Amino acid sequence: MTRLFRLFAVLTLCACERPATPCDRCPSFSERLVCLRETKCLSDGGCSEVEVRCAERCQPAADGGLGCSEGHACITDDRDRTYCESACRNELCSAGKECGENSCVAVECGTTIRCPAATDFCDLPSHTCKALSGVCSSLEQCQSSTRDTVVTCSGSCRLTPAPFSSVGEVAPLDVAVVSPNSTSQFSNQGDVFFEWDGLEQPSVVLVLRGEVGARPLSSAIWGAVLPAGTTRVTLAEGSAIIDGGWEPASAPALPEGEQLAFFVQQVDRRTLVARSLAVPFIVADTWAQRGEPCVSECANPFVPLSCYQGTCLARCASHVDCFPAACIEQRVCN
């Protein structure tokens, strides 16, 4: 009996994986689309629809086989469904092209197309060749800025860390955070303290976690409300914040080993009059330093670093950034 039940269950699961119900999510008039229904088998033998999506149908190719638009492969999945892969592959693009916005586009250079001159490197975000030396007369001659770096031109391209996040309601940035800073090391919860220099006004101080948006309280996990004249507070003197609610009875403890941020707002009779930038810090860990071994990344919001050949190296935009060393093609100081 048990064996029959198992056989029935297998048959049921197979039916679930290949439902006979027709698919109506893709336009019926399009001969280039095929419908892919993704389902999940439930413990009771039923089916739960997870996703229904359209994919490009493989078309007859000149060589007698099946093909897709340039950059896309015709694949057969583990359910014997044949369709065009959604992701673009550089190796399937014709000469002088690479994938951009999921289709092959002509580029000056890229991950597989090198710059013709040995004295140039490829700025991948813009797919343009730039001088390795970083000598510039305009910003267009420099590599692109990134989410965590800013590149400027002053005779040579110069790379600096991106400014810390400006969050909360619009108010003058008249509060300077003293601690944490680039050298702060909080080896445990008891070491954590915050210090700032601002106006002679009451302060609302917060620790933020994750993405910091326009409403800092939505990402706050700790906070304290302090009278005018107070410019220093320890972790124990504040309260945990859970889902936007202050929990004075909860013993405050911060997550360890991940990037957090400290933020100050100052108020005058419930009106916001000053604020700080959101300054990053970490508990029970340290920021990566230049020359340290690494595997994949080197997190340090104060000093832009990249993991290159197993070592954290300073990122650069010109030889001037690295003097007396050189800024190499991978845009690190060698």
List keywords for this structure.
334 residues; mainly beta; Immunoglobulin-like; seven-stranded antiparallel beta sheet; three-stranded antiparallel beta sheet; 2 helices; 24 strands; disordered N terminus
State the name of the first-level CATH class of the domain at 176-281: Mainly Beta
| Mean pLDDT across residues | 87
Give the ordered list of helices and strands: HEEEEEEEEEEEEEEEEEEEEEEEEH
Name the shape in a single word: extended
Give the percentage of residues in beta strands. Answer: 25-35%
Q: What Rg is obtained from the alpha carbons, in whole angstroms?
A: 28 Å
And the CATH topology of the domain at 176-281? Immunoglobulin-like
Sequence stretches where pLDDT stays below 50 over 5 or more residues: 1-15
Helix count, per DSSP?
A: 2
Strand count, sense and barrel status of the largest sheet are:
7 strands, antiparallel
Distance between the termini: 71 Å
The CATH level-2 architecture of the domain at 176-281 is identified as: Sandwich
Class by SSE composition? mainly beta
Helix content: under 10%
What is the number of beta strands?
A: 24
